[in-house]
Amino acid sequence: MAGVLLDLAISLDGFIGRADGSDAGLYDWYFEPSPASKPVTDELVETTGAIVIGRGAYGTGDDAGGWDDTPYQVRHVVLTHRPPAAVPGRTVEFVFVADGVHAALDSARAVAGDRYVTIGGGADVARQFLAAGLVDEIQLHVVPVLLGAGIALFDRTPDTSATRLNRIRVVDGPVVTHLRYQVERLAR
């Protein structure tokens, strides 16, 4: 069964984007990775068997035409209460799921094989997966910028006091530090 990896870029003060949904440059390192970051991005693409995102992340990518050149040629499961009309001719498969995180995970696992189901945003979807205890690993790409406000990743995560993160690795690049943790669920 595929593991579940939560993978997001984040500012040093805990935001994954601005309040308007823009990424505030937090992913600039991804599109032109340094020699330190390139193995991290290559591994992420290679080990991702399916991606789960929210409707907002889907819309942001769709508006920017970002799905046409994505390196992730895997099923993208969009967790939403507002499925859009089908768009023919996509280079990747989109499946829209309105029945919650468990149904989204089932759809992603059905095609992921032994590769990760990667939770790729936004914050609400990430929090739902964390609250449901469905995340096996967390990889954060910490960009040394203070946004001061925006979309916080952990601001409304219910009762994470029973979760410990065990460091798997730290990769320090010139404009981003990649942190990867295994999630350990503790008895409550």
Layout of SSEs?
Elements (H helix, E strand, L loop, with lengths): L3 E8 L16 H4 L6 H10 E7 H9 L11 E5 L14 E4 L3 H12 L3 E4 L3 H9 L5 E7 L19 E10 L4 E9 L3
Parallel strand pairs: 1-5, 1-6, 2-3, 2-5, 3-4
Antiparallel strand pairs: 6-8, 7-8
Explain this structure to me?
This protein is an alpha/beta fold and 188 residues long. It has a domain at 17-92 and 108-114 and 122-159: Dihydrofolate Reductase, subunit A. It contains 5 helices and 8 strands; from the N terminus they run βααβαββαβαβββ. It has helices at residues 28-31, 38-47, 55-63, 101-112, 123-131; strands at residues 4-11, 48-54, 75-79, 94-97, 116-119, 137-143, 163-172, 177-185. It has an 8-stranded mixed sheet. It starts with a strand and ends with a strand. The mean pLDDT is 89.
What is the distance, rounded to the nearest whole angstrom, between the alpha carbons of the first and last residues?
Answer: 26 Å
Rg, Cα atoms, Å: 16 Å
The arrangement of helices and strands along the chain is EHHEHEEHEHEEE
Secondary structure tally, helices: 5
CATH topology of the domain at 17-92 and 108-114 and 122-159: Dihydrofolate Reductase, subunit A
Question: What is the share of helical residues?
Answer: 10-25%
Largest sheet at a glance? 8 strands, mixed
Per CATH, the superfamily of the domain at 17-92 and 108-114 and 122-159 is: Dihydrofolate Reductase, subunit A
Total beta strand runs: 8
Which stretches are poorly predicted, pLDDT < 50 over at least 5 residues?
none
- The CATH architecture classification of the domain at 17-92 and 108-114 and 122-159 is 3-Layer(aba) Sandwich
Strand content: 25-35%
Q: Structural class given helices, strands, pairing?
A: alpha/beta
Give the CATH level 1 class of the domain at 17-92 and 108-114 and 122-159.
Answer: Alpha Beta
Task: List the strand order in the largest sheet.
Answer: 4-3-2-5-1-6-8-7
The chain-level mean pLDDT equals 89
Q: What gross morphology would you assign?
A: globular
